[in-house]
């Protein structure tokens, strides 16, 4: 069966990507050399549902489900700020910057997407929703002292509000893993609050 590796996400605007790039550069200067594999800002998304290997025969059904989910939530804004690690700063594997959306619209959108794609065979996420943007991943070969240092740097780095962004659409995106890095293609955009969707042409980006 032919499949595409896909996910559902909010795409970030260029201004926010620029702020994330500056934050990564600042952290890179403080952390042990080559201890963190930083995510290219153009490849950072606010992922709401990782679908994984999606049968081509289900692509349209996924997008129809996305339209239904998007129709339930109107446009909203979120703030980006605050640093953290997964699973925690004592044993960091992922370095992230957090998101704050006070109205509950983002959480509502997440729940609506989960509910709409579950009947298509995509299991519901058991972990609590923790919206974040991944900045980098700690290299597996980093020493214990380097890992500890990374966690300490993140824990003591005060990062206020970095930026805020208006969200009007949610996207179905294809991810192709290549030796040069992942290539993302926007397959579909569903407009929040209206139920209207628009196919995207030429949406490849690395």
Describe the structure.
It is built from 4 helices and 11 strands, in the order E-H-E-E-H-E-E-H-E-H-E-E-E-E-E. It is α+β, with helices and mostly antiparallel strands. The protein has one domain: Cyclic Phosphodiesterase, Chain: A. The strands form 2 sheets. Strands 1, 3, 8, 9, 10 and 11 form a 6-stranded antiparallel β-sheet that branches. Strand 9 and strand 10 form a beta hairpin. The model has no long low-confidence stretch (mean pLDDT 92).
Tag the structure with descriptive keywords.
single chain; 206 residues; alpha+beta; Cyclic Phosphodiesterase, Chain: A; five-stranded antiparallel sheet; 27% helix; 39% strand
Using DSSP, what is the number of strands? 11
CATH fold category name: Cyclic Phosphodiesterase, Chain: A
- Please bin the fraction of helical residues: 25-40%
Strand portion, in percent?
35-45%
Give the class-level CATH name. Answer: Alpha Beta
Distance between the termini: 26 Å
Structural class: alpha+beta
Spans where pLDDT lies below 50 across 5 or more residues: none
Radius of gyration using CA atoms only: 18 Å
Summarize model confidence as the mean pLDDT.
92
């Amino acid at each position: 069966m032919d499949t595409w590796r896909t996910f559902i996400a909010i795409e970030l605007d260029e201004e926010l990507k620029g702020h994330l790039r500056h934050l990564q550069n600042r952290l890179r200067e403080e952390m042990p050399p080559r201890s963190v594999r930083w995510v290219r800002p153009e490849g950072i998304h606010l992922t709401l549902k990782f679908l994984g290997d999606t049968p081509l025969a289900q692509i349209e059904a996924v997008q129809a489900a996305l339209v239904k989910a998007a129709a339930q939530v109107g446009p909203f804004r979120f703030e980006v700020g605050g640093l953290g690690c997964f699973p925690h700063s004592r044993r960091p594997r992922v370095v992230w910057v957090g998101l704050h959306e006070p109205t509950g619209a983002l959480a509502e959108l997440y729940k609506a997407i989960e509910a709409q794609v579950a009947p298509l065979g995509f299991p519901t996420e058991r972990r609590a929703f923790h919206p974040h943007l991944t900045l980098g991943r700690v290299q597996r070969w980093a020493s214990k002292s380097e890992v500890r240092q990374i966690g300490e740097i993140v824990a003591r780095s005060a990062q206020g509000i970095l930026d805020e962004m208006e969200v009007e659409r949610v996207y179905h995106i294809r991810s192709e893993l290549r030796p040069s890095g992942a290539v993302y293609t926007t397959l579909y955009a569903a407009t929040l609050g209206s139920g209207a969707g628009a196919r995207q042409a030429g949406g490849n980006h690395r």
